[in-house]
Amino acid sequence: MVIAALAVSLAPFSAGLGKGYSSPAIASLQGPGNATRRDFQLTDQQASWLASLSFLGALFGGMAGGAAMRHGRRRVLSLAAAPCSLSWLLTVLATSVRMMCITAFLGGFCCSILTMLSQVYISEISVPDIRGCLSAVLKIVGHLGVLFSFTIGAYLDWQQLALCISAAPLLLFCTVLYIPETPSYLVLIGKDEEAYKSLLWLRGPNSDVAQELATIRTNVLASKNFSQRQSQMSSSQLINSFDVRTMNRLLGPILVTCGLMMFQRFSGAHAFSFYAVPIFRKTFGGMNPHGAAIAVSFVQLLASCLSGLLIDTVGRLPLLIVSSVLMSMALAGFGSYAYYEEVHRNQRIQNVMFHQTVGQNDWIPLLCVLVFTIAFSLGMSPISWLLIGELFPLEYRAFGSAMATAFSYLCAFVGVKTFVDFQQALGLHGAFWLYASISVGGLCFVVCCVPETKGRDLDEMDPNYVQSLSPKR
Question: What is the DSSP string of 122-180?
């Protein structure tokens, strides 16, 4: 399981590299090195399009990934890796900002498929006791990708950085060839013998997997028969059969996962990722904004490592609650400091000694950002994606995963694109106060709507799953 998880983790690593690309690339494109290249003179609005279009591509990639999932988790991972690498090579050869925007859209399309399929793959191959830990590995390597891009982006220009990133999807394509397909999918398409071999590969050659395979076979076939009965029904019969229990099995997970994704994407986390250097330049008096961005990314990586241990010991719901509280406080504190800086900007320019005093207070906004990053990485970020694989029943997993992922990327696109607009309309402080208010709303949503899934079997591994598909008497 661990080997397969590490191989598949190259998918979120590739996505993390792409996520971390925008900040150093925009700095490179707007820097003095591009002063003679008229096609690459970015305005703030153009930069926001370049940063956000990958999420618009990811929106359509989520839809395509859900439809493609029926052809196999492992197969789709390998097929999406090659065009992802190609999109980065086209970025290297880009001759205009417009071409870079197109390649950003294509890269986001492929990364969305890779991210969703890797999460589903981990959920289907892992046992409940370590599913949260293995799922957190995906988030950890994703943050490692961001850190890698931030670090080497400080020394490379946008073309050299894109060339380095293109190698990661190619490596994913090679490693996926050596891991098995998930047992659940193999049973679903009638390849029980291959499913048995897959379980032996995942659990170990000396493991007794007969009982687990029997449970998976019984539940997957029951789910398959249920789906076939649903597809054979007429429209009126289908509406009549859509009782409260069915609504809870499908609509409940959709509302929970989409709600979490909305609050996650509008929490301000992407502002710190895609506009880190411009934000830090406006709030820090003397600290190097590039160094601060790398430091925050490193702390995010460490927090993600810790989340893998806490998710399966503390539980999903307590972590979400603590995460939301700390995020709200940190965002409010950062907005308040930004307001203080804006109010005293004129005094700071006129009075050198006051400027030095303010520069000595750079630890305040940095502390707020670090607290927010730790809280976000421990709870809201990994658990939102983990619940996509855990909440949806098997018969609705492909559809539900695609819908939740697509909605997530739609919110991400809007969130990244509108940060510049929020900043212009409300000021930097007002934008982060708005994000703090949204995080408070997320806290209320978590307390009222999100269930605890710690230690719960997935449907196809639950011995009582068949009873849940039986007709109501």
Answer: HHHHS-HHHHHHHHHHHHHHHHHHHHHHHHHHTTS-HHHHHHHHTHHHHHHHHHHTTSP
Burial degree of 460 (CB within 10 A; 0-12, 13-18, 19+): buried
Phi, psi of 83 (to 5 degrees): -65, -25
Task: Give the Cα separation of 252 and 392 in Å (integer).
Answer: 9
Sequence letter at residue 276: A
Give the closest residue to 164 by CA, choosing from 288, 46, 25. 25
What is the distance between the terminal CA atoms of the chain, rounded to a whole angstrom?
A: 40
Residue-level pLDDT at 433: 94
Is the pLDDT confidence value at 466 over 50?
no
For the stretch 349-391, pLDDT in tens is: 555 544 455 566 778 888 999 999 999 988 888 888 788 877 8
Q: What percentage of residues in the chain have a pLDDT greater than 70? A: 83
221 exposed, middle or buried (CB, 10 Å; 0-12, 13-18, 19+)?
Answer: middle
pTM, to two decimals: 0.77
Round to whole Å and give the CA distance between 348 and 218. 71
